[in-house]
Amino acid sequence: MSAFLAIVARDLRLGFGAQGAMLTTLLFFVLAVSLFPLGVGPEPQILARIAAGVIWVAALLAAMLSLDRLFQTDQEDGTLDLLAQAPLPLGLVALAKTLAHWLTTGLPLSLIAPLLAILLQMEGDAIPVLLGALLLGTPSLSLIGAIGAALTLGAKRGAVLVPLLTLPLVIPVLIFGVGAVEAAAYGLSAGPHLLLLGAFLAGALALSPLAIAAAVRLALE
Amino acid sequence: MLHALANPARFLRLMAAIRPWAAGVAVLGLGIGLAWGLLYSPPDYQQGETVRIMYIHVPAAWMGMFIYAAMAVASATALIWRHPVAELVAKASAPAGAAFTLICLITGSLWGKPMWGAWWVWDARLTSMLILFFLYLGYIALWEAFDDPARAGRAAAILALVGAINLPIIKFSVDWWNTMHQPASVLTLEGPKIHPDILWPLLITALGAKGYYVWLLTVRVRAEILKRQARILRFAAATDRRAG
Fold it and tell me: Is the ipTM of this complex over 0.90?
């Protein structure tokens, strides 16, 4: 457990630092969302109708941004070789790094989303649901994205490949995430959507570390 | 059986034995099925002559899904038993699957124009096929992204398995998304039972498409095996030159 926490703490220090991608990712997210009113026009009804979709799509894209560096920097300086030889199973190492990725992208992104929702005229009742759905959905993005990041280790054009491999796989998160917010906006229960998001997360949490570990091991051979 | 096929030379002999039969099934199935479907089957009472697009559209959709399943099984075989030929079967399948999926999408949009009045409708089935197409493209792109074929093959195999696990979830979510966003305006096959005059040419065409896929596999896997042998020979020659 202490090894797990040590990896998380190390990646957090790297992520929060000046070189870290956290602020850039957050800035990209805010910028991408603010482009939409400029693109589709400032009518409040239209903005309110598309707010959930816009925020979720921007979150998906923002989560992809820093993924290609998730294992690559560690592979370049040899850290990954050491981590692979540590007594901690490689699946847990992968999980620790993914958790750190989520803490520096998914979490801050979710926390700032309510502010953007207000800018996009979202229903007041839907905003807490948006926050909950993002908190429940973005860990899945990090988990599935980490598979893509590990698979493309050492690949040509890895940075472009990761979104290409990952985005089709996270479509369910987008659909259920937007579904939860829209249900709340129409006064329906968001429960089923949130449960499905949770189910997807539970599945991803159980299976992704296996795939990530297999892919990392492959890259280190 | 599995281990016997891991020997590329033996696999090549088996491929050579299957090839003419697969070609025969492909030519007869596609020939008879398409001629029957496109020329001699009755037009639909609602859709008229446009129903004939279905004789290409539906077998292509089946093949698109079937080949992804075949790819997943081959990838699992490659990962679990380190089976060298299974990896090549998966690699050789991907472009065929992508092509069938694209045919399904194009014929679907051609059919959609007269029936729905639009080239593209975000219908659940079309959307799922589009996502399947993206999955194929990602798989092919991953194969191309590495210089070392051994590394590429196993990374691609892991991706194919992740995709295969996720695919039913994506399908379910898209179905649900579709019913949330638009009312049922879509004509589905489940409605009226399919008449035998339509069903038979459809099944025969589908069988022909399967034969075509098998034939294509025998050709493409052979090419892949020869390509790898050529690569090894080239390396050996380069080493010899340096040594001599």
Answer: no
